[in-house]
Amino acid sequence: MQDNAPHIGIFWLYKSTVVAKKTQLSQLLADHLAIYDSDFSHMTEWEDKLVFLPMFPELLGSEYQEIARGRIVYIEPKGVFRIYADKSIMQNANYRALVIDSFGLTGFNCLWLADPHYRVFKC
User: What does pTM read for this prediction?
Assistant: First the structure.
């Protein structure tokens, strides 16, 4: 059974698949500005916890910044999910739909934003 509740967290998009570390929004507390964010780190989840396994063993030895990625936070005062992502995800409607579906954000107000933190870097 799929959980359709809204989630926040971090993600990568690889081979048209969302690889995510996420938490249901209702399980979190907002900060003093009423912003909901996760404590997930791209580097830790990718390089230490190997979040892409067992689905993509070919990614062993890769670095987290080599794959298009992003982060989703919720801004309660504005009622909007901010999705920070690499431009390759933002410019592709199918990729955006995959992320929205994976995080249960269909029907919610979402704002896509570019951020240099999520730019793909090839070694």
Answer: 0.93
Instruction: Flag whether 30 is in a domain.
Output: yes
Instruction: Find tokens 């996420």 and name the residue.
Output: 22
Is residue 89 within 8 Å of residue 68, measured between CB atoms?
yes
Looking at the 3D structure of the chain, how many domains does it have? 1
Distance between CA atoms of residues 6 and 36, nearest Å: 12
The range of the structural domain enclosing residue 39 comes to 11-118
For residue 92, being part of any structural domain is answered with yes
Element (H, E) at 81: strand 80-85
Is 41 within a domain?
Answer: yes
pLDDT tens per residue across span 55-105: 999 999 999 999 999 999 999 989 999 999 999 999 999 999 999 999 999
Specify the amino acid at residue 19: V
Flag whether 6 is in a domain. Answer: no
For 67, list phi and psi in degrees, rounded to 5: -115, 140
